[in-house]
């Protein structure tokens, strides 16, 4: 094949055209396509010089170019696949992007190696202008190598993009609301408002009833925002989620505190601070009980029904005529409302775009039967898909039959269509969401870590899957309200899921024979393990993920079960005293263990000796328990990489005179300690954990000091010391953390100054110091932080960075408002 044929031929021209289209269309592959275009452009310039020289290349050199021709053909085939793929299929596009990168690298190696040598030997008699061309291509190669080196997709980037996408969605809904498009809520809001604003004593309990996915909770939240309702109840409104496995004692305590005005932890952000005192005179109040499932739970919560001036709004799929005096039955969306909601989700505009098969869209919308959740989820799954994909979805919707006569199960069948079009790995990750309790926020760190371990995913792959599920409305990313409007890091993000989508995951999980299922899940809290599990305990269970949800358990209440294949064990319980299941001792493959106590008080863990057999454990999450006595541990956890202690009592478990942490956990990379109110200082031995990359100590109000030898943490990249008000100084050793990229000292309100040698943090990219009002000046050495890109602070602190900003104008100084919401206390 001649050189002139190679670069003047159709393959190169078409490939470049396709790469241009990919740059304009694809989110994930854009960077890789640009790199390959740049490589081809520089390569083409040198080839053009050879053409102009009139020299014929020897057969050996022509053979080398033929190899590149094959690479171009591979790239062309790959570009066809990328162009056919939906830009919202982030996981598949990431795989394509990597293949494009590999082609680009092979071309660059050819340019650097054999091609340069052959070409130089063949055209050395050309003018000196040719030498300049070689200099140009060498410079291009170096630039491209730098771009490839920086190609790693950061986890924060994916989460930030997903949150931004959801924020854009929210702004679209708000814009639609402003235009009078409220998706069928206006009539409902008016009728429920009238029921609530009748005389204070008649009726006292009203309801919103409807099937799952019909918009009950959305309507209830609209009621909370209604100005007339807020004025009628003087802003004293409380929203509580009851769910299928409620903690009745905790709910009653919060209601009592709310009505009596003596329990600040019960305050919703809509409750004005004026009610933080004890009120001797009864005042009007509204309590919204969302997601109520059974009459027994509701009866126990009605003890405050007689409180003068109090109205209760019950939101449920069920009717409770003996308690709820008047009910609004939520209606499905009318045709034009359904079409608008669907178009906003599928096309990101209010109507069907020109050129789209209008009849096909209407048929798909009709099959959603006016259900808001179905419209959003199916619309999200069809976004940016080719028409053949839409035709397939329409046929499947049309022939979808209910599992039984229940409307709820018919909805599950419709939701399943969105699931069926996911890639295999994305499907598996979606199903994993069913392993967590209903109506609970799932910490992002738990989810990502579980996906990485069970599905052998790289961290960036896990975040891409999260991004894809969020964009398809199959989960929701929720920012911690304390973070304010600004997205700061993955630590501030949680995952939630609509009940119907969780029901779909559970329905799919529970297919097939019990012992052969990959996930063994208790859907709600029970007093004991399901009897079905006990009946099948004579044979081993094949489950890789096991999720158990109980109350207090003793040694004798655990059945003998063979769960030796399990890699993830999630123990959700509500108890003061909890005996760890004896069968843990035989779970040799267990790599992720999550213990979450949902009771109001800290639980004492018994039978901690079972940990001695968990030599494969990589990740441990303990929440609201007494931190176990590590002195009982007689084997090192050589594979343990992540430990999270949330709302735990530390006691003496970190005492260096009792335990040697680096010896027990020699390979820890990630340590999180949050809301541990008895933690006064970190043991110095932590600084000998030299593999540590991330350390987060947050909301520990008694923490007074950090170890002086922090400089020994030579691998540390992320350090979060957030909301530790007793901390007054940072140790000078922090300044020697040459790998540190992110420092968060926000809400350390008594921190007086930054260390003098802060400029030694040569890798620091971001510093967050919101509400550090005592910091009056920044050390001059801060000018030396050459990698610093982003400073986050509030208006009170921003002036101290003036000199740094003046010297380094490229630094982004983000000034945010203080956030005083107590909404986070709901969790």
Automatic annotation (TrEMBL):
Q: Where is the RPW8 domain?
A: 1-149
Q: Please tell me whether the keyword Repeat is annotated for this protein.
A: yes
Q: Name one Pfam family in it.
A: NB-ARC
- Please provide the Gene Ontology terms (biological process) for this protein: defense response
In its UniProt record, a GO molecular function of this protein is: ADP binding
> Which source organism?
Trapa natans
* Alphabetical keyword list: Plant defense, Repeat
Q: Which domain of life is it from?
A: Eukaryota
Q: Which family, according to the similarity comment? A: Belongs to the disease resistance NB-LRR family.
**What name has this protein been given in UniProt?**
RPW8 domain-containing protein
Q: What is the lineage of its organism?
A: Eukaryota, Viridiplantae, Streptophyta, Embryophyta, Tracheophyta
């Amino acid at each position: 094949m001649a050189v002139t044929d190679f670069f003047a031929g159709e393959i190169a021209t078409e490939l470049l055209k396709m790469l241009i289209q990919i740059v304009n269309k694809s989110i994930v592959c854009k960077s890789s396509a640009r790199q390959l275009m740049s490589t081809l452009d520089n390569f083409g310039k040198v080839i053009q010089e050879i053409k102009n020289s009139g020299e014929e290349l020897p057969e050996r050199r022509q053979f080398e170019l033929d190899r590149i021709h094959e690479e171009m053909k591979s790239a062309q085939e790959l570009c066809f696949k990328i162009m056919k793929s939906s830009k919202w299929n982030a996981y598949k596009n990431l795989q394509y992007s990597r293949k494009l990168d590999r082609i680009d690298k092979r071309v660059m190696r050819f340019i650097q190696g054999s091609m340069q040598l052959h070409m130089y030997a063949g055209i050395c008699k050309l003018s000196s202008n040719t030498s300049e061309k070689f200099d140009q291509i060498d410079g291009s190669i170096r630039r491209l190598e730098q771009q490839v080196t920086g190609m790693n997709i950061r986890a924060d980037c994916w989460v930030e993009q997903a949150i931004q996408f959801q924020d854009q969605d929210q702004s679209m809904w708000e814009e639609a609301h402003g235009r009078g498009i409220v998706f069928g809520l206006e009539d409902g809001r008016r009728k429920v408002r009238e029921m609530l604003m009748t005389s204070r004593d008649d009726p006292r309990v009203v309801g919103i009833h409807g099937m799952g996915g019909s918009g009950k909770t959305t309507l209830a939240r609209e009621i909370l925002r209604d100005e007339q309702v807020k004025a009628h109840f003087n802003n004293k409104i409380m929203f509580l989620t009851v769910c299928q496995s409620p903690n009745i004692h905790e709910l009653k305590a919060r209601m009592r505190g709310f009505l009596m005005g003596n329990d600040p932890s019960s305050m919703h952000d809509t409750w004005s601070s004026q009610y933080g005192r004890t009120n001797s005179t009864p005042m009007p109040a509204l309590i919204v009980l969302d997601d109520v499932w059974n009459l027994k739970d509701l009866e126990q919560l009605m003890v405050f029904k007689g409180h003068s001036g109090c109205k209760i709004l019950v939101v449920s799929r069920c009717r409770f005529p003996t308690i709820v005096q008047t009910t609004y039955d939520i209606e499905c969306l009318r045709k034009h409302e359904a079409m608008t909601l669907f178009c906003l989700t599928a096309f990101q505009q209010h109507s069907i775009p020109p050129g789209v098969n209008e009849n096909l869209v209407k048929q798909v919308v009709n099959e959603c039967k006016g259900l808001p959740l179905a419209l959003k989820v199916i619309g999200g799954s069809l976004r940016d898909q080719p028409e053949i994909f839409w035709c397939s979805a329409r046929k499947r919707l049309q022939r979808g039959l209910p599992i039984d006569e229940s409307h709820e199960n018919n909805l599950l069948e419709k939701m399943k269509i969105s699931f069926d079009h996911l890639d295999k790995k994305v499907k598996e990750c979606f199903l994993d969401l069913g392993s967590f309790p209903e109506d609970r926020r799932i910490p992002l760190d738990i989810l990502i870590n579980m996906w990485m371990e069970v599905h052998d995913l790289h961290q960036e792959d896990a975040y891409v899957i999260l991004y894809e599920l969020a964009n398809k409305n199959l989960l929701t990313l929720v920012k911690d309200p304390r973070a304010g409007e600004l997205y700061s890091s993955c630590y501030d993000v949680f995952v939630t899921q609509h009940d119907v989508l969780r029901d779909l995951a559970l329905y799919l999980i529970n297919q097939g024979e019990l012992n052969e299922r990959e996930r063994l899940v208790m859907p709600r809290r029970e007093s004991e393990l399901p009897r079905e599990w006990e009946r099948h305990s004579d044979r081993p269970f094949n489950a890789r993920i096991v999720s158990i949800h109980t109350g207090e358990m003793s040694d004798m209440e655990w059945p003998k079960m063979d769960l030796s294949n399990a890699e993830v064990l999630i123990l959700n319980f509500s108890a003061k005293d909890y005996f760890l299941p004896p069968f843990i001792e035989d779970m040799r493959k267990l790599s992720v263990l999550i213990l979450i106590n949902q009771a109001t008080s800290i639980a004492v863990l018994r039978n901690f000796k079972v940990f001695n057999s968990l030599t494969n454990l990589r990740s441990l999450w303990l929440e609201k328990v007494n931190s176990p006595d590590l002195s009982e541990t007689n084997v090192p956890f050589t594979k343990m990489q992540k430990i999270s202690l949330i709302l735990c009592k530390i006691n003496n478990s970190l005492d260096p005179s009792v335990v040697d942490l680096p010896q027990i956990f020699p390979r820890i990379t990630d340590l999180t300690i949050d809301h541990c109110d008895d933690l006064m200082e970190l043991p110095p031995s932590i600084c000998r954990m030299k593999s540590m990359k991330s350390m987060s100590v947050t909301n520990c109000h008694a923490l007074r000091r950090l170890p002086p030898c922090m400089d020994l943490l030579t691998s540390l990249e992320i350090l979060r010391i957030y909301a530790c008000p007793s901390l007054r100084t940072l140790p000078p050793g922090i300044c020697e953390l040459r790998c540190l990229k992110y420092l968060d000292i926000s809400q350390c309100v008594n921190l007086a100054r930054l260390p003098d040698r802060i400029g030694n943090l040569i890798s620091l990219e971001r510093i967050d110091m919101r509400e550090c009002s005592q910091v009056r000046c920044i050390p001059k050495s801060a000018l030396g932080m050459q990698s610093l890109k982003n400073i986050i602070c509030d208006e009170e602190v921003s002036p101290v960075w003036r000199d740094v900003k003046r010297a380094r104008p490229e630094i982004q100084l983000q000034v945010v408002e203080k956030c005083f919401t107590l909404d986070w206390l709901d969790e």
